[in-house]
User: Fold these one by one.
Assistant:
Number 1:
Amino acid sequence: MSEIAVNELVRHGGLDGLADDWSADKQTYHVPWGKAMMWIFLVSDTFIFTCFLTSYLHVRLTTTEPWPVQSEIFALSFGGGDPIPLILIAIMTFILISSSGTMALAVNFGYRGDKVKTFWLMCATAAFGASFVGMQVFEWSKLILEEGVRPWGNPYGAPQFGAVFFMITGFHGAHVTVGVIYLLWVAFRVKRGLYDEKGYEIVEIAGLYWHFVDLVWVFIFAFFYLL
Amino acid sequence: MSSTTGQQHPLGIYYRIWVLLFVLSACSYAVDFFNVQGGMRWFLVIMFMLLKAGFIVAIFMHVFWERLALAFTILAPPTVLLLLIAFMTIEGNYTSGTRYLYMGHDPNAVALSPDDIHGAEPAEEEEH
C-alpha cells in the first residue's frame, strides 16, 4: 500500500476510523508491529496476573482462619523507634512511580533523537527497578528468616497468606528483574546508535512493558497490602 | 515507519502526571497510616488505585492518543475479567458460608500480630 493511501485511511479518527481499520484485507493497527505485539503480550499478561489476584480473592474469602494483618507484618522501625506501618511497601511504591516517570521521559527524548538523555534516563529507570528488587529481597528474607512465613503456613493466621504472598510478589519481582535487563539491553543499543536508521519506537515498546510492571504493582499494593 | 510518526507530546504533561501519581500514592498510603477502616477504606483504596491505573494507561502508555482499533483491543478483553471476579466472589462467599456453618470455625477470630509472637512472654509453639 502506498504511503498516500495509508495516510488517507489513518485520517479518520473515532468510530469511523475504527470501522475503517477493521474492514477487510488491510492492516488493522497503524503502529509498528513490535508495538502491537508488545500490547498483545501485555494483554495476555494481564490475564495471568488477574488469575493470581482472583485466586487470592477466592482463597481469602473462603479461608476460615483469620487473615494476617498486613499493616503490622510489613511495618518497619528505624533506629529503635515505633514501627511505621507498611513503610517499606510505600517506599517501594514511590520508587516504581519514579521509575515510570523517568521511563516516560526516556520515550519522549528517544523520539526527539536525543540519544544521550534517552540512555541515561533508561539507566535511571533500570537503577530504580534494581533497587525495588533489592528491597523485595530484604522483605522476603525478613519474612522467611525472622518471621517464619512459609508458603504452607505462618505464625499469624491463615496459612494461605504465605502461598499468595510468595506467588504474587515473586511473579511481579521476576517481571521487574526481566524488565531491568531488557531496559539496559535497549539502552546500550540506543547509545551505540543501532536505532538511528530504524527509529526509536523500541524505546516506547520497552517503556510499555515497564509501565505495565508499575501498573501491576498498583493493583498488588491496593489488594494485597492495603485491603 | 520513520521516527517522526511515534507518540510525541509536550514534556509538561508527563511531569504533571508524574506528580499526580505521587500524590495519589501518598493518599492511598495515608489511608493505611491513619487507619481508616470499613467501607470507607475499600472505597478510598479502590478509587485511588483506579485513578492511578487510569493515568498510567492513558498518558504514560499513550492509550489516550491511540486509534480506537488498538485501544479497544487493549481494553475490551480485560473487562471480561470483571465477570470472573464477580463469579469468584459469589462462589467464595458461598464456600466460606458453608464452612462456617458446618465446620464450626469462629467467624470472629482475630489474626495474631508480630507483637504477639515476638512479645515479652515466650511465644508458644502453635501447630497448624
Number 2:
Amino acid sequence: MRFLTIMLCALGLAAFDDNTNTANAATQNEQVVNLYSSQQEHLIRPVLVNFTKKTGITVNLTTGGNAELVTRLEYEGENTPADMLLTVDIGNVYQAKDKGLLQVVESEILSGNILAYLRDPEGYWFGITSRARLIFYHKDRVEAHAVQNYADLADDRWKGRVLIRSSNNVYNQSLVASRVAHDGREAALKWAKGLVANMARSPQGGDTDQIKALLAGEGDLAVANSYYYGRLIAGDESVRDPKVAEKIGVIFPDQEGHGTHVNIRGGGVTKYAKNRANAVKLLEYLVQEPAQRFFADANLEYPANLAVKANSAVEAWGEFNRDQLNLEEVGKHQRTAIEVMDEAGWR
Amino acid sequence: MIRSKSYISITLAVMIAAPLFIIAAGWVVADKGTFSYYLSNNLISIYALNSAIISMAVSTCALGIGICTAWAVTMLAFPCRGLMEWLLVLPLAMPAYVAAMIYGDVLQGAGPVQSWIRELTGLSYGEYYFPAVHSLGGVVFVLSFTLYPYVYLLARSAFLSQSRQMLECGETLGLTGYSLFTRLALPMARPALVAGMALVAMEALADFGVVALYGVPAFTTGIYRAWQGMYDPVAAARMACILLAMVLFALAIERRARGQASYHNNNALYHPLPRYRLSGIAQLGVLLGCSLPVLLGFIVPLALIMQWSMEHVALFADTSTLQALGNSLLLAILTVAVAITVGLWFAYALRGQIPKAGRWAIRLATAGYAIPGSVIAVGVLLLFILLQQYVLPGGWLLTGSLLGIVWGCVLRFLTVAFQSAETGLGQVMPQMDAVASTLGASGRGILWRVHLPIMQASLLSGMLLVFVDTLKELPATLLLRPFNFDTLAIRTYELAGDELLHRAAPTALLLVAASLLPVWLLNHKMAAAGRGDVP
C-alpha cells in the first residue's frame, strides 16, 4: 500500500515538474518544436534561445548519445514527440535515414545555402557544419612535406610513431568507411593493418589527447578532427596551449587525390514530426548567418554555408580540397568499416 | 492472506524486472549478424575475460583496502584516528568516471606529471619507465580506490559490533593481535565483507565510464559498440544477458558460500573495544597507510577539480547549473523513496513463505546493480514504447514524466536497498516477533514499533547509498530523461565527452559536494549502528 502511495506521489511530482519545468508537446496551442540532439547542450542551446526570441517558437531539447537517440526515435515510431533530429557524423545521420526515421524536406533556403556534398541528394538530411579529419606532425621531428596522404599513415617509415584513438570512435569509423568507399574493402583492410602496425601506443583518449601526446613526444604523427586542434590554438583559455601553435603542424591529406575527409554534424526532420513547419524553420535558421557564425566561433568548425566564413584562426590554416564524395556513400560503409578495423586488430 | 501477499510480491518483482525480460527477448528476435560476428571473431571471450579480470581484481583490492583500514580505525590507537575514520568514506562521493578523467589527464604522457619528470631528468618520452594509465591496470587502480568504501563501511560496522566478550574469549584461548584478527574477527565479519565485495564486484562489472575512457575492451564497451557502432540493440541485449548471467552465477556462489549459517549479532552485550597501543613509528605507518586511499580516491582528484573550477567560476552561478543540481536531488530522492519501500517489501517476502518462482523473480528484480545503465535504459525504453502502443497511447509517459528515469534508477539500485533491508531484517531475531505478539502487538505494530527501530540504521545506510549512487548515475539517466531535464552527472559527462575537462569541473565539483552530506550521514549512522547505540 505504502509503495502505491509513494509511486503516486512520484507520479504527481513528475507531473508537477512537467507543468513547471518543461513546456511539453502536449500543450498544443503553444508553438513548439521538439528536438533530439546529440550535440552537447552548450554548443546548441544559445542558438535555440535566439531562435525562440526571433520566432516565438519554444524549443524543447533532449540531448543524448547518437545511437541512443536514433534507437529511441526508432522504437517510438509514430508516437515520437521529436520533430527534429540533430546528430554528429554521417555514420549516425545515415542510420537515421536508413531506418526510415527522417522525411524529405524541400527548401530553397536549405538547398541554396548548404554545399551539395554536405546534404542528402534526396533531401532527407542536411549538414549544418563540417569538420576535417587531419594529420598533425611535430615540427621538430618531421619534415613539413614528409607526409601528404592518409596512405602514408600505413607506410613502414612511421612504424611505432602514429597516434590515433580507438576504433570505437565514429570519426575513425567514418574515415575508414570513406576509404572503403573509394578503394574497396581489401585495400581499406590493408591500410588499416599498416596503420595498426605503425601505432605508437594502443589507442586511448580523445582527439585532443592525440595532439597532446604528439607534443609530449609519444609519437610523431597524430590524427584528429580540425576543431580539436582549433581549440588548442584559439579556443577557450583553459583549453589553449601556446606550445601547440608553436610545435605542431597541420597536414590536409590527399590534396592530390580524393581530397581531405570531411564530415558533418547535421540531421533532418523526423518522419512523424507533429510540428513539421516549425522544425523546417529551425533547420533553416541553423544554416543561416547568425547560427552559422555561432557554430563557427563556438566550436571552430567549418560552416556548411559557404557564404559564412570560418573563424579567422581556422581560416589561417589555409584553403584545402575536400573529399567531394557524397557522405551518403560513407554512411553506407560504416558497418564494413567496423569489421575492417576489428580484423586489423585496431582496438 | 499470506498467499495474496506473496502474489503481490511476485507481481511487483516481475513488474520491476520487466525491462530485463524484454532484454532477454533479444534471444528470440533474429540476430542481424552482429552477434555471430562478435562470436566468430572471438570478441565475446576477450570481453568476458577482461570484465572478469577487472571485477575480480577490483573487488580483491577493495577488500584488502577496506579490511585493513576498517581494522585499523576500530582496533588500533593512532593520532587523528577519529578524523581518518570519517575521511576514509569520502571516495564514495567521487564518481569513478570523474576520477578516471582526472587521472587520465594528469598521468598520460602529455600530462603534468610526466612533463615534470622529463623536465627534471632531461630525458624524452619513452626513455624512462612510467606505467600507462590507459590500461587494465589503470582501470583497476581507479575503480579500487573509488569503490573500496563499500567494503570499508560494512567491515567497520561488523568489527565494531563484535562484542568484547568474544574477543576476550579468543584472547583467553591464546590468540594474540594478528591471529585474533585472522582467526576470529575476520571470519565473524564474513557476511558483511562478502556483501561489500559483491557490491564492488558488480559495480566494477557494470562500469562503462572508466573502461571506455581508458580504452580497455570489456563487456560494457562491447555492448556499447554493438549498439552505437553497429546499430544493433539486439546484439547488445544478448551480450547484456551474458553479463547478467555472470552476475547471477556470482550471487549464487555467494549464497551457497554463506550457506544456512545465520549471523544474529547480539548487541546487548556490547562494550567498547579496547584499542591496541602501538609504538610511535608503527602509529605513523598506520596513519600514512590509512591516508593513502583517501588521498588517491578523493583528495587528489578533488584538488584538481577545484583548481580547474577556478577557471570557470561563472558556471557555478549559471541558472542551468542550479537547475541541474535541483533535478539531480529530485531524482535521487524519488529513487530512494521507491527503492527502499520495494526493497523492504521484498525482504519481508523472502522472510516469509514464498513460492520458488517468487524467490527467483525477486532475485532477478534485485540484480540490476551489475547491469550497465545503458542496457537497463534500453529495456525500460522498450517497455514504455510497448505500454504506449497498447495501454497508454500518446508519447507523454517518457517525454513528459519522470517515471521512466525513476524506473531505470530503481531497477539499477534496488540491489542496494534490498540488501540493506535484508541485513536489517537479519538483525531482528525471530524470537522478538513471538515476544511482541505475546505482548499483544498487531502485525503492523510489530513492524512500526519493533522491526523498523531495529532496522533503522541499516535501512538508512541503504537509502544513503542509493541516494549517492543515483546522483552519480549516468547512462540510464541520459537516455530516459524527459525533455529539458538535465542533471549534474549529465552536464559533467557532456562537457568531458566533448574533451573540455576544465569546463566540466564546476559541475563535477557540485556533484561531489551534493554527495558529501549523505556520505557523512552514512558514515555517522554506520558507526553508530556498529557500536549498537540506540539512535
